[in-house]
């Protein structure tokens, strides 16, 4: 099983990305609420991808693991070598249990995200990438995993039940 832990530096990097996009939203995008929607939705997707995909042998699991690894390395470097701090492990989450229908919904969300990346010229690819990356970076921390796992997993499973009933 691949390494599925986040250190404090990785979480700090995810939060730093959030702060940078909030500052951009405030000053460059003139705090228009609609400008936050792509970033927030892709952040939620990143959390869901990390909670659902990590630990599985899948393309989503591999991308989530690679992002988690990158967040850990960059965050560790920033905290330890950048400012002289420490980067202890702060993981508290396990893989999210999804129903078969829940995995269908994650698959459909992934397809929508790829389509937005490729064909939505008004949606910034940076918002999509960094939103998903920061979601993966913070998803496994103790506080976020506890708060996000239940509503994200329950919502996706509920939508999956609906999907399963419609197409069965």
Question: Would you mind describing this structure in some detail?
Answer:
- The protein is an all-alpha fold.
- It contains 6 helices and no strands.
- α1 packs across α3 (59-83) and α2 packs across α6 (142-167).
Provide a brief overview of the structure.
By secondary structure, the chain is mostly helical.
Binned, the helix content reads over 70%
Beta content: under 5%
What is the N-to-C succession of helices and strands?
A: HHHHHH
Biggest sheet features: none
- Shape field: globular
Could you give the count of β-strands? 0
Mean pLDDT: 89
The low-confidence runs, each spanning 5 or more residues with pLDDT under 50, are: none
Euclidean distance between termini CA atoms: 33 Å
Q: State the helix count.
A: 6
Helix-strand makeup class: mainly alpha
Output the radius of gyration.
Answer: 16 Å
Keywords:
about 170 residues, single chain, mainly alpha, 6 helices
Ordered list of secondary-structure elements with their pairings:
Blueprint: H1 8-27, H2 33-53, H3 59-83, H4 100-119, H5 125-139, H6 142-167
Helix pairs in contact: 1-3, 1-5, 2-3, 2-4, 2-5, 2-6, 3-5, 4-6
């Amino acid at each position: 099983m691949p390494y599925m832990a986040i250190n404090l530096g990785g979480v700090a990097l995810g939060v730093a990305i959030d702060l940078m996009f909030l500052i951009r939203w405030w000053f460059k995008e003139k705090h228009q609420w609609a400008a936050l929607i792509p970033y927030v939705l892709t952040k939620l997707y990143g959390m869901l991808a990390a909670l659902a995909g990590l630990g599985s042998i899948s393309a989503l699991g591999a991308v989530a693991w690679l992002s988690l690894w990158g967040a850990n390395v960059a965050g560790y470097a920033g905290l330890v070598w950048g400012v002289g701090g420490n980067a202890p492990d702060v993981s508290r989450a396990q893989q999210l249990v999804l129903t078969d229908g829940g995995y269908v919904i994650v698959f459909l969300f992934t397809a929508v995200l790829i389509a937005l990346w490729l064909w939505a010229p008004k949606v910034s690819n940076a918002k999509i990438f960094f939103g998903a990356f920061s979601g993966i970076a913070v998803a496994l921390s103790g506080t976020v995993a506890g708060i996000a796992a239940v509503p994200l997993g329950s919502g996706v499973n509920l939508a999956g039940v609906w999907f399963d009933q419609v197409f069965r």
